[in-house]
Design brief:
Strand order of the largest sheet of chain B: 3-2-8-9-10-11-1-12
Number of strands of chain B: 32
Shape of chain B: elongated
Strand order of the largest sheet of chain A: 2-1-3-4-5
Number of helices of chain B: 18
Oligomer: heterodimer
């Protein structure tokens, strides 16, 4: 009982008991993108009611999606990075973002797992390029699409395609106030059960990645009677093998099991290994 | 038609067509009806408008990881068994406000929001679920503390139970002694048979409600038919669990290979814990954001399958799936008996049906019993005295002085709001608005000020070590057990502390330092990481100057100016002759350190009951509710933090428990 034992998560400096900071010391927020669709940045813009309060609490100094007043150089107290490392220039960019940032947060399935564009990691680049582009010779891209954490240290991850507005506000609040963000690495099932949704897998035989997927969306798909397709990526210790075996036993064809795991976050380690098992 | 007024204990007969009027009467009395209804392909428990919302003509088909609704051939109201939800979500909601903070100028006031809901009438409570409500009552309405919001809801609930004549494939209430006949605690209990409803009256309130509908006394044939039907139900249980001696068997097989094998199948999704009608673990979060600016907290269902449940200092004491599944099963079917005097399982079968991969607790428990490698004697439930008041509401305490002890550790002098009595070894929950609260041991008293020495390792403790004199923080407590000072009078006492572990011991050491007559021989062994990490250096020196005390300090890594001992604190006990078997030992420090010390003491023939140690967990309530500080059958918050070694030996030696 001797210490404050709530555990620690990586963070910027020591917290303060006083939430109010003088205006001049408002944290500087930067928002950057790599290979992505901008959908996660839009979640920040989509905070409509909350956006003014966020803008009060932080100085948004770089946010190309929202403004042409940019301060690319930093330094930033908090940086949100959307997108995966997919093109050659991303390699240098991400190092620069990291260097300029106190707290670096990756947002979305692309930044945290490589995204849907990481499907090419399971094939060769040429195969994909030829199918997609009329003139692949003009294409300058990396062989693989990889998550930011493969390249630089990441302080926090916000998962999802797109990210959850609630989690974004929670993270910004926590960083500003100096508390531990309540972003849990637990199964989606726990959200389903708290909301009282009926399990689509047990009651309807619908395959669902909920048991191996991290909660964050609030169980949107199961609430509509659909199985979770894992857009928040694997939860810690995801036992994908046991779930895949159950899906096979339910009569789901092996190629569908493969595709269930190889989707938006298919390059995340646990999902990647599972889909490879079913090749 | 009322040939006699129904009375408590009576069995009455009610025509099916008159049943809706019974529910109308409850509504008229102001109850919100909650009961089973068909929704999304399952029978869920939610608000009902009346009897027409009940799952008339529906039943369910269940198997491991399998649940389907099926039409029945009759129009029974209650022709089904346990569904995906249990009544706990209405008494212990999945999410609810915990505390709210109001600021009045410079002062702080925390309060718990009142339960502002109409009383509920639970319609169609199955016998297993009735038993589950009683199991939860022991958690929330036992001792030392009662949970005020649960009590407020529970006291007003009207329970209309139903006997279960058609148990399902996953049912084993008969094994657990919870069914198929409803036990005590209902207001009215129905049995649906032969197109009529037999109604047993359980309480005066039930009697009053039943008086509003036409009933007649059940006949002798009715009674016999009921007994026969219940006997038949007992013979139709789809599952069976031999619970005899199970707690001791499970804890005697902590290293059984079955746990590892189970971990291959278990998804650690936690569904079993959330469908279980008795699981009570919760976590707490700050709900205020930059947007709303408030500083309230809520609690929400948590699960021993989530990694966060066992987090401490950024590490996890149940990191592996094996440890997490073992925690669930050993708690549910084992530790519960020692904690609450009842099994945590009521035989409803929900955890089997709603496990996505169909893991069957009855099968797992039986597999371990069948290949058991021994069993342990489990401790009987501990008696706790009931403490009045709401243990979850912090009181404001003013920081009157802060002392930096080391680079990351500070001592706070805090003045509590009212009179405050504590014993060395106990702890408080300290709270910073908008940041969180954490358990911190009490490290002494100076005048009216209560001292807390805190190492900033997480967000809340860092915030606490950064506060300045004059600030207000929240304080709840004191909680837990204390060092055996009285029992140590006249005896040799050896205190062994590691790092910040000196803080919870300081109150005891001070007491012994000031009273040489009561404590004629005290030896303090203290280890810190580096000379800069040594806590209370001046006080250590003063203690060492006392004739009845010997103080020895060592550091893991020396600095150039350090002339003292280097090495682990365990080195002081390296030679057997340095270990006095007649001494009382008080230990506090990292668990790994205490494990090594205990080993040395036992080697030197120190009796197990001469050793006392203080354990630490990441508790959220401090009051025995949140379940996060469990170590086998013990709640560290209320059965500890100070334990006598012989009582916890069988769990202490297993780090993953």
């Amino acid at each position: 009982m001797s210490t404050g034992n709530e555990g620690s998560t990586p963070a910027a400096g020591r917290g303060s008991a006083v939430a109010e900071a003088p205006a001049s010391s408002k944290p500087r927020l930067g928002v950057f993108k790599l290979a992505s669709c901008d959908g996660c940045q839009l979640v920040l813009l989509d905070c409509e009611d909350e956006l003014l309060a966020v803008a009060e609490a932080v100085d948004i100094v770089h946010f190309p999606e929202a403004s042409s007043h940019l301060a690319e150089e930093g330094p930033f107290d908090v940086t949100l990075v959307e997108g995966s490392i997919s093109a050659p220039e991303h390699l240098a960019q991400i190092q620069a973002f990291r260097k300029a940032s106190k707290v670096l947060v990756t947002i979305g399935a692309c930044a945290t797992s490589g995204g849907i564009q990481a499907l090419r990691n399971f094939a060769t680049l040429d195969e994909y390029a030829e199918r997609v582009y009329a003139h692949p010779e003009y294409l300058a891209t990396l062989e693989t699409s990889t998550p930011v954490a493969d390249h630089v240290k990441v302080d926090y991850e916000l998962r999802g395609c797109p990210i959850s507005k609630r989690q974004l506000l929670e993270l910004l609040t926590a960083v500003i106030k100096g508390r531990r963000p309540e972003i849990r690495n637990e199964s989606l099932c726990l959200a389903c059960k708290r909301y009282g949704y009926v399990c689509v897998m047990v009651a309807h035989g619908i395959p669902c990645l909920g048991p191996v997927t991290v909660n964050g969306c609030g169980a949107v798909c199961p609430s509509m009677g659909r199985g979770c397709y894992g857009c928040f990526g694997p939860k810690e210790g995801a036992n994908t093998r046991a779930l895949a075996e159950r899906m096979l036993a339910m009569g789901i064809p092996r190629d569908e099991v493969l595709r269930a795991f190889r989707f938006i976050t298919g390059y995340a380690e646990a999902f990647r290994e599972e889909s490879i098992r079913h090749e | 038609m009322n040939d006699s007024r129904p009375a408590v204990g009576d069995l009455q007969s009610l025509e099916r067509s008159d049943f809706p009027a019974l529910l109308e009467r409850l509504k008229a009395d102001g109850y919100k009806l909650v009961g089973p209804t068909v929704r999304d392909g399952a029978i869920r428990l939610q608000k009902l408008d009346g009897a027409e919302d009940l799952p008339v003509g529906w039943t369910d088909e269940q198997g491991p990881g399998h649940y389907r609704l099926r039409p029945r051939e009759d129009d029974h109201y209650f022709g089904f068994v346990a569904g995906p939800q249990s009544w706990k979500r209405h008494l212990f909601p999945p999410r609810e406000p915990l505390i709210q903070l109001k600021r009045h100028g410079d002062s702080l006031e925390w309060r718990r929001p009142a339960v502002d809901e109409p009383p509920m009438a639970f319609i169609g409570v199955l016998p297993c679920d009735l038993a589950a409500i009683h199991v939860q009552d022991k958690v929330w309405m036992g001792a030392p503390f009662q949970e005020s919001r649960y009590v407020a809801r529970r006291r007003r609930v009207f329970i209309l139970a139903v006997n279960c004549l058609e148990p399902g494939e996953l049912c084993f209430c008969d094994s657990m002694g919870t069914g198929p006949k409803a036990g005590s605690g209902f207001d009215l209990c129905l049995t649906e048979m032969n197109g009529r409803l037999l109604v047993e009256v359980g309480t005066a309130r039930g009697e009053e409600v039943l008086a509003s509908v036409p009933v007649r006394k059940a006949s002798a044939e009715d009674r016999q038919a009921l007994l026969n039907a219940l006997d038949l139900a007992r013979s139709r249980m789809g599952r069976h669990l031999n619970s005899k001696g199970l707690p001791g068997i499970l804890f005697g097989n902590i290293d059984h290979p079955r746990w590892e094998e189970l971990a291959q199948r278990c998804l650690t999704c936690g569904n079993c814990t959330h469908v279980c009608p008795t699981c009570f673990c919760f976590n707490v979060r700050e709900t205020g954001t930059v947007v709303d600016g408030h500083e309230d907290r809520e609690r929400f269902w948590d699960s021993c399958f989530s990694l966060d449940h066992s987090m401490i200092h950024g590490g996890y004491f149940r990191a592996t799936p094996k440890q997490r599944y073992r925690q669930w099963l050993t708690h549910k079917l084992g530790a519960w008996e020692s904690q609450f005097g009842t099994s945590g399982c009521v035989g409803c079968g929900r955890c089997i049906a709603w496990c996505p991969v169909g893991i069957d607790v009855t099968e797992e428990a039986e597999a371990i019993r069948a290949t058991s490698k021994g069993h342990v004697r489990m401790p009987p439930p501990r008696e706790h005295r009931l403490v009045a008041g709401d243990a979850l509401i912090p009181s404001p305490a003013q920081i009157i002085h802060v002392r930096e002890e080391t680079a990351d550790t500070a001592t706070l002098w805090m003045e509590p709001t009212g009179p405050y009595h504590w014993r060395p070894g106990q702890f408080n929950m300290l709270s910073i608005p908008g940041i969180g609260d954490v358990p911190i041991s009490i490290s002494g008293q100076a005048g009216a000020a209560i001292l807390h020495t805190i190492r900033g390792v997480g967000k809340v403790s860092q915030a606490l070590t950064s506060v300045e004199a004059g600030a207000l923080v929240g304080m709840r407590g004191p909680f837990g057990t204390s060092w055996p000072l009285k029992a140590s009078r006249g005896r040799i006492v050896t205190v062994v502390a590691g790092g910040i572990g000196l803080a919870p011991l300081r109150g005891a050491v001070r007491e012994m330092a000031e009273n040489p007559k009561l404590y004629p021989s005290v030896r303090l062994l203290y280890g810190a990481r580096t000379p800069g990490d040594i806590l209370y250096p001046d006080e250590l020196q003063r203690w060492g100057n006392h004739l009845h005390m010997k103080v020895q300090v060592t550091v893991d890594r020396a600095a150039p100016t350090w002339t003292g001992h280097v090495g682990f604190v365990t080195n002081f006990l390296r030679r057997r002759e340095e270990v006095r078997p007649d001494s009382v030992y008080l230990l506090c420090g990292p668990e790994i350190m205490m494990r090594v010390i205990v080993e040395k003491l036992l080697e030197a023939a120190v009796p197990e009951d001469h050793i006392f140690l203080s354990l630490e967990r990441n508790m959220k309530c401090g009051a025995g509710f949140c379940g996060r500080c469990q170590k086998g059958p013990f709640f560290i918050c209320k059965d500890g933090p100070v334990f006598r070694y012989d009582q916890i030996a069988f769990v202490f030696t297993h780090p993953g428990l």
